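Input record, target 12 of the design panel.
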């Protein structure tokens, strides 16, 4: 049974039109929407990339798993609840410009994509800074140790923030 739509020209239709933001079946040219849409900047969400506890990968706003991966509905619901719990770590709602600036200074970003790229950028800044500190401290090492560090640096095109870690990786490869 279909419900009849009230005419916008009736008192009831005019009352309904007062609450509409866009042109709908309750509005027309004579009775425009009574609550026009207005963009409001706040509250808004900000995002941060976090590390997945099982895989170790960085993510921001993971999607729910496919139901086809589960044998029982309860397993799927548990997985969706776990994803939702992880996602709550990835976002925060700010209420005004002051909170937004504080969040930006704390490493939060305007979109999930910016959060991931911001994390990667921060990671590489840390690697470069650690490498620079290592190069500075290398000047106080013995000539043999300096030669070893230079050999490790020459063996790769990447930044090497810690020679001992790089040497242990190289030794592990040689043993294989």
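The sequence produced for target 12 reads:
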């Amino acid at each position: 049974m279909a419900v009849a739509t009230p005419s916008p020209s009736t008192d009831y239709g005019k009352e309904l039109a007062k609450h509409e933001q866009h042109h709908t079946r309750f509005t027309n040219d004579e009775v425009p929407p009574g609550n026009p849409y207005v963009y409001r900047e706040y509250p808004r969400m900000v995002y941060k990339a976090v590390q997945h506890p099982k895989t170790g990968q960085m993510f921001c706003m993971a999607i729910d798993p496919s139901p086809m991966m589960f044998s029982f509905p309860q397993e799927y619901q548990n997985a969706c609840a776990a994803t939702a719990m992880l996602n709550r770590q990835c976002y925060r709602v700010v209420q005004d410009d002051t909170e937004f600036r504080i969040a930006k200074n704390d490493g939060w970003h305007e979109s999930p994509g910016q959060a991931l790229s911001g994390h990667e950028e921060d990671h590489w800044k840390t690697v470069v800074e650690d490498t620079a500190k290592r190069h500075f401290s290398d000047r106080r090492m013995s000539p043999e140790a300096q030669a070893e560090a230079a050999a490790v640096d020459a063996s790769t095109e990447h930044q090497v923030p810690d020679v001992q870690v790089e040497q242990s990786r190289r030794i592990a490869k040689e043993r294989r």
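The longest strand covers residues 44-47.
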